[in-house]
Amino acid sequence: MKSLFEQLGGTYARQGDYCLPDVCLPPEEERPIGVYGQRRRVYLKKHHRILYYNLLTAGTLGGHLADIEEEAQELFLRLVEQYADPEGVTERLKASDPQSWVRKMNGIRNRANEAVMQEIVYG
């Protein structure tokens, strides 16, 4: 009599006195995972273990993290542009007062990064 695992197409490998099921994760498409994807992985692993392991065992964790990375990068760039316009951070300021431009851009990037982290990575 075959087990349910065998009926569904599963196979076993003999190791010593034991028959262990041949289980492997389905292949995933290789996509780059950047900083936001890595942060999302750490967050899921630490605070949402069930979701993390469901994505991992379904073979969709890499795709999920890559999607988060793309979405976060797009939002970050859009927010930097939106924050820079009202504050007058332009190429003209960059040419005339580089230190002021760097100081303002660092502040804008930090605010945009915080917004992305709260909305996408921890959301």
SS elements, strand count:
2
Counting DSSP H or I runs of 4 or more residues, the number of helices is: 6
Strand order of the largest sheet: 1-2
Mean pLDDT value: 91
Secondary structure: helix percent: 55-70%
3D shape = rod-shaped
Q: What is the makeup of the main sheet? A: 2 strands, antiparallel
Radius of gyration computed on alpha carbons: 23 Å
Parts with pLDDT < 50 across at least 5 consecutive residues:
none
Please identify the structural class as seen in this structure: mainly alpha
Q: What does this 3D model show about the protein?
A:
The protein has helices at 4-7, 35-47, 49-58, 61-87, 91-96, 98-121, and strands at 12-15, 18-21. With 123 residues, the protein is mostly helical. The protein has a two-stranded antiparallel sheet. It is rod-shaped.
